[in-house]
Amino acid sequence: MKRDIALIRGDGIGPEIVGQAKLVLDRVAALYGHEFNYTDVDMGGNAIDKWGDPLPQEMLDKCLASDSVLLGAVGGPKWNGVPGPMRPEKGLLRLRAGMGVYSNNRPAKIWPQLASASPLKQEIVDKGIDFIIVRELIGGIYFGKHETVTENGEPVAIDELRYSESEIRRIGRIGFETARKRNHKLCSVEKSNVLDSSRLWKKVMHELAEEYPDVELSDMLVDNCAMQIVKDPSQFDVIVTENMFGDILSDEASMITGSIGMIPSSSLGDGTRGLYEPIHGSAPDIAGKDIANPIGTILAAAMMLRFSFDMPQEADCIENAVSKVLDSGYRTGDILPTDAHHCSLVGCTEMGRLIIENLKKG
Ligand code: IPM
Ligand code: MG
Fold this sequence. Notes:
This protein is α/β, with parallel strands linked by helices.
């Protein structure tokens, strides 16, 4: 099959990790007889430097013309002084909105090889960690009106949080459908004891529940959820939540699995074109040192094959290769245990090379 992939290398460690993911995709294409064509897209800090805009329209157009987008990470201290609407992250938000990818899927699953890297007590880890956070991605406080006004002689900053019923319903459906493909348990997370938007959220989720009698719906307040994720993560199957709660909870969820460097994510809208990225940031402190963990991005590429290109065997092939490399004890610094005698420390390029070496057509 022929597929066009837009590659956003981004800032910081982005170019290094995307470079490795591309090599993995090239090898998969050769093994399975596919043709992947790549278009480079500038976004984030590098696009600000080059074009004076974190996502020029023609770059968004290139993404919209592709079959899917693979992204490393954007941002860094260099652009901290840039005003809000021109920040590198704004490019990412405009890309998500421009692509209409309202549903962000972030798995929190522990790799057995990395169980000891979890900061949780072993008895909690042993009960199992395998859940998905379905995060609404193009609404809520991220996309409300942002302004700073002057009141009584002082600046007052306002960020508007709004959700329409239809926005809630479409992400709710993804939550129920996702649960249906797993263990049929959906936990809707909100703050309905305080927020109107959360009360509407809860009402819509319960209306939808009537259409999905095979899925067990529960409600949880976001503060309690933050606590439950570290107390007993085994209780969760699928969590569905609004944009900012999902942002925060997904970082927490990734940490209990050992390393944020391992977690991919997919963002989809109504079609098959998706945006695939690791959930970690651009890690400018380790950029250019060839020590970043490319696995999150490589697994994001696998998700792209599975969810956008309907290539489940090819996706399994990548995931199996990652598993084999971990079995052999190879680790980047972020997943190296303190008692590392049975493990070998490798850099970004070497980790990519090992994964490619282990790609075997199943
Ligand atoms: C994420 C990131 C982004 C977000 C930032 C970079 C804007 O934290 O993908 O979780 O908040 O959505
Ligand atoms: Mg985040």
